[in-house]
Design goal:
This protein is α+β, with helices and mostly antiparallel strands. It has 3 helices and 2 strands; from the N terminus they run H-H-E-H-E.
Length: 75
Amino acid sequence: MRIPIACAPLALGLALSACATTGEGDYYNDELRRLAADCEARGGILSPTGSQTGRPAVDNVCKITGETGRAPSGG
């Protein structure tokens, strides 16, 4: 009976540390939102590249889906 009581604080500490955030995820998500907004402003959509480096600018690419701004060739 003493072992479960003695282990309770350790288990609680581990459970709480698993839920703690380091702030690193907030940077990634904030940067990802900024990149998506910039991409959409240029008429594109942010798409994943498949890599997972932890840097949003490397992990995603802006695919332009709107007009390119070039004059149509009317021959």
